[in-house]
Amino acid sequence: MKLLKKSIAIVLATTVLNVTAQNKELINAFSQSYDYEALQKYDAAINSINTVYNASSYETNLRLGWLNYIAGKSKDAVSYYQKAIQLMPAATEPLWAIINPLTVTQSWNEIEKTYLSILKLDPKSASANYNLGMIYYYRKDYVNAKKHFDVSLNLTPFNYNNMLMSGWTNYFLGNKNEAKTLFNKVLLYSPNDKSALEGLSLIK
Asked: What pLDDT score does 21 carry?
């Protein structure tokens, strides 16, 4: 019995040493990548993480997503962020992160899907609702734009962008009274605002 306990203790001690060594190696790789990033040596930073890369590691995929993005390798960045999203499906962090390289590649349909995924996890996100509203606004889909602008406006009623874009969306929907009210509120925030004054000049 004593021999068995001793054997178990040796195995546990060896396991702890291995885990500690692996963790130290991981920490060192991340630390080195930060140093290279600060020097704008992005390929070297990427290589630092690649030495300890584990496909099932959320942290390494997220880090490589960022490093590839700032290195100008948007497609690679998207790939790593997608892996991070799969590993942590309840997290909004990688969803927000993947929008950057998707914007570079002008993948607007994917960006729309990403914002919708964020809103499934965080329905009251003012930023996600506003940004999604902007996508629909520029598509001239004013009904859906208003739906998302309304959420953002209700959360931050005296935000300049929310008031202005809600004003123009209501204008194009024919809601002149609502648009007039919003344009006037914009002027409280930004007196002599050209866009708000233009909107008011169109309302008779």
From this structure: 59
Considering the entire predicted model, what is its pTM?
Answer: 0.85
Positive or negative, the CA dihedral 42, 43, 46, 48 is negative
Let me know: does 118 contact 87? Beta carbons within 8 Å.
Answer: no
CATH architecture of the domain with residue range 53-123: Alpha Horseshoe (1.25)
Nearest to 144 by CA among 136, 152, 154: 136
Q: Residues 131-170: pLDDT tens digits?
A: 999 999 999 999 999 999 999 999 999 999 999 999 999 9
Within 10 angstroms of residue 77's Cβ, the number of other Cβ atoms is 25
C-alpha to C-alpha distance for 100 and 18, rounded to whole angstroms: 37
Residue with tokens 């194009």: 172
Residue position matching structure tokens 């809601």: 175
Domain ranges, ordered by start, for the chain: 53-123, 130-204
The string of pLDDT tens digits covering residues 103-115 is 999 999 999 999 9
Question: What's domain 130-204's superfamily in CATH?
Answer: Tetratricopeptide repeat domain (1.25.40.10)
